[in-house]
């Protein structure tokens, strides 16, 4: 989907404001640095707004959540975000069984119908490209809450980046992205966002069978972003500012003992920089041991909470009138 379809020129351009208004949120690379900074400014404001109990500003607006596959954080934080803004929510949480897909309805028809009931639609679709198809068919903004196994999860990456931004400058970061990266939609979306900043270096740490896909590497090459592929966590863990752990999935050629080679646990902690940040999009399995939770560098629960603020901010950017 080209940038024009995802944004539109803001006819009310004012000094200091981005010239583009968001139409849909489908892929991370659609965001410019000014858009990210506006989003993060608004997210800080949302932290203060939530501390005051929220607002009623969006009481006449309706958000639809259409999740074809399971979610705890993304769906509930979007729904909480809309409630904190004073808006209303309509929801299908298991759309593969409880929407008309079971009768053969395609996502385009479903979206046209839901768009006539609501002002914004949040969709998690089981096929890569499902959210993009929805956006093409939609008369209201569509937000991709994760598409397929190896698509994208842009709002997760936005909250990941916000969590880092709250702690340190984004230029000059070194980041280890660890896990089964071939199907890691959060890792893919985060790599696109990190590429927007100066002097970033990314270490992709994964079993050789589950390396980051070539399309992301091509994008990083085109944007002169330094990266390395690594399969030994110990070779990078001591030199990075951010450890972004993601799930390790079983693989036919990966022995179950090998999964633990990519795990973060109490013995890993002394090897990390004293001020490193440990992030994980959650949910976790064996790759992030509970013994890490008490470490002050472990930010993943705050990261999940930041999802509320960032999603509130995103909704205001999509719903505000021209
Ligand atoms: N991180 C994330 O997307 O979590 P959920 O699957 O619970 O939404």
What does this protein structure show overall?
The protein is an alpha/beta fold and 322 residues long. The chain folds into two domains: 3-152 and 306-319, Rossmann fold; 168-298, Aspartate/ornithine carbamoyltransferase (Rossmann fold). It has helices at residues 3-6, 33-51, 73-84, 95-98, 107-115, 130-137, 154-165, 185-194, 214-222, 256-259, 300-319; strands spanning 7-9, 20-22, 62-67, 88-92, 120-125, 142-147, 174-178, 201-205, 226-230, 242-245, 277-279. Helix 8 links the parallel strand 7 (174-178) and strand 8 (201-205). Helix 2 packs across helix 11 (300-319), helix 7 (154-165) crosses helix 8 (185-194) and helix 7 (154-165) packs across helix 11. Bound molecules: phosphoric acid mono(formamide)ester. The site of phosphoric acid mono(formamide)ester (CP) has 10 residues, from helix 3.
